[in-house]
């Protein structure tokens, strides 16, 4: 299987908790679809203390996984918003 591209996308998006609007990540997103997964190497700023848990409300928004041989976070549907 193919790995994610080495050249990072130029567009950055703000990923926040859908429940309490707390900022979680600043992420380099490619494409124009919904945010389904976050590759760890593309996260520019990380505002979380625990992996996949919102620091403000404690809600789980992502699970740690390996996608195409690269570490990533798989987003739980409806738990995050992207701006």
What does this structure look like?
The protein is mainly beta and 83 residues long. It has one domain. It is 0% helix and 41% strand. It is built from no helices and 7 strands. The strands form 2 sheets. The protein has a 4-stranded antiparallel beta sheet, with no helix packed on it. It has a 3-stranded antiparallel beta sheet with strand order 3-6-5, with no helix packed on it. It is globular, with a radius of gyration of 12 Å. The N and C termini lie far apart (30 Å). The mean pLDDT is 95.
Describe the protein's topology.
Elements: E1 12-17, E2 23-28, E3 37-39, E4 43-46, E5 62-67, E6 70-75, E7 80-82
Antiparallel strand pairs: 1-2, 1-7, 2-4, 3-6, 5-6
Total strands: the figure is 7
Beta percentage is: 35-45%
What is the N-to-C order of secondary-structure elements (H for helix, E for strand)? EEEEEEE
* Secondary-structure content class: mainly beta
Q: How far from one another are the termini?
A: 30 Å
| Low-pLDDT residue intervals, each spanning 5 or more residues | none
For the record, the count of structural domains works out to 1
Question: Could you name the key traits of this structure?
Answer:
three-stranded antiparallel sheet, mainly beta, 7 strands, four-stranded antiparallel sheet, 0% helix, 83 residues
Structure, briefly:
By secondary structure, the protein is mainly beta.
């Amino acid at each position: 299987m193919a790995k994610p591209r080495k050249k990072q996308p130029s567009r950055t998006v703000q990923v926040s908790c859908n429940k309490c609007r707390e900022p979680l990540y600043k992420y380099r997103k490619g494409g124009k679809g919904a945010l389904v997964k976050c590759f760890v190497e593309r996260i520019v700023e990380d505002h979380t203390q625990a992996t996949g848990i919102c620091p403000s409300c404690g809600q789980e928004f992502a699970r740690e996984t390996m996608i195409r041989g690269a570490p990533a976070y798989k987003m739980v549907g409806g738990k995050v918003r992207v701006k």
